[in-house]
Amino acid sequence: ETGVTQSPTHLIKTRGQQVTLRCSSQSGHNTVSWYQQALGQGPQFIFQYYREEENGRGNFPPRFSGLQFPNYSSELNVNALELDDSALYLCASSLRSGRNTGELFFGEGSRLTVL
Amino acid sequence: GDSVTQMEGPVTLSEEAFLTINCTYTATGYPSLFWYVQYPGEGLQLLLKATKADDKGSNKGFEATYRKETTSFHLEKGSVQVSDSAVYFCALTSTGKLIFGQGTTLQVKP
Questions:
Q1: CB neighbours of residue A16 within 10 Å
Q2: Best residue in B97, B102, B104 to probe A by mutation, most A CBs within 10 Å?
Q3: What is d(CA A68, CA A15) in angstroms, rounded to the nearest whole number?
Q4: Over the stretch A47-76, which tens digit does the pLDDT of each residue have?
Q5: Which of A73, B23, B40, B62 is a good FRET partner for B87, with 20 to 30 A between their CA atoms?
Q6: DSSP per residue over A57-107, as a string?
Q7: Å from B2 to nearest chain A CA?
Q8: Residue B109 phi/psi, 5° resolution?
Q9: Helix (H) or strand (E) holding B54
Q10: Residue B94: is its pLDDT beyond 80?
Q11: Residue A15 near residue A81, CB atoms below 8 Å
């Protein structure tokens, strides 16, 4: 069973640039969620994708967008980067079935630094 | 909205000491409750969970009981080890998205 993998693991961008982060779901999982974890804080929910459709969004501006592909892998795109976007971005996959018990499987994250 | 509050850290203990990390929550409905752990340099891992009132989650010697009357889900371990040093996150979900507390850093000294 393959776990959740994310790429790249680290990257540095400058203000105003755009970034794309990638995530491969755990085998058999059909739902992907993205979280932003600022240094010393708990992860904050960005959005969730199920069957290639956005299925819930947190309090993040539209310049945060995503995609889910037919193989359930996913991308997170952030446009017009700001300094406060510097954080660890976590991808989590799960299997949506019946009552969602919320058990997510996380990747190790992509650490984004915006200069 | 729903929220989770954890005791602030860092918590520093000697090996074999008793551990309690407090967690309280605010939620509408009947959320599921979780403890996740983040070891240095690793991703978040589910430690334990409870899906209804009075359920006790347990794993690797850690326990937490879902207390609806006090809206709490405190994490306990009878005897901590150096290898338990990590950041612990309490979380809840009732809508499919996880809401996390701010995390509590545990450092266990030999």
A1: 10
A2: B97
A3: 26
A4: 999 889 998 899 999 999 999 999 889 999
A5: A73
A6: E-S--TTEEEEE-TTS-EEEEE-S--GGG-EEEEEEEE---SS-----EE-
A7: 12
A8: -105, 140
A9: none
A10: no
A11: yes
